[in-house]
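Exercise: predict the fold of this chain.
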Amino acid sequence: MHIGLLFGFGAASHGAAASTANAKLLPLAVSLADWNSFTSTGRSPDGSVHDSHTLDRPTSDLTPPNNVRSGGDNVPELIVEPDWCCVGRPTNNTPTMREWIDNGASPSDMAYFGPNGLQTPANCSDVPGTKHTLMRNLQNAAGQPRTVLLYDTYRGGNYHVVGFAGVTIVGTAGNGSHQTVALQPTLVIDPAATTSGTSWNGGTKSVGPASPLSLVR
């Protein structure tokens, strides 16, 4: 099982200006308890270890989603039902959700959370209702290194976000009210990543599969 080899924390630095770059943030919240169990055992919330997809590194000749193929690669996948959350101003607007999936959270989205953007801990609003029409957008985002929110509690329609995880969508399944997304842990290069609300000097901005980084506006 290669999962342990993938888990390093990313560091934030200057690169693309945070005020002009979209964060590679998906409008998905993942339970911290589920994530910690997955990183320790490789098991998804259903108690099973899943490895049905192979993720290849994107290149100029192998672009997403073509870098995802069926068949195991000895890296477990976390299978979860999507917990949709707002990575900007609270909304139930489907076009806005599509934009977040397709292009990430914009600088103005991050500014909603304050002058330093989305800094943990923070509350991000739940998106009520089944968003089955968004599953196609998730599938279209397969193969792209992206970031999801990690939350420890859910109260009053808000996910209490305590961290971020670098992932790649490698598959979706289900229909109607029972849908799942398969996430493989990935190191994500994100120009909007910061540590403690500031940028570091030198290096590459990245979000590890379980990172203390924040996202700025």
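Check your answer against the key: The helical segments are 32-41, 94-103, 107-111, 135-140.
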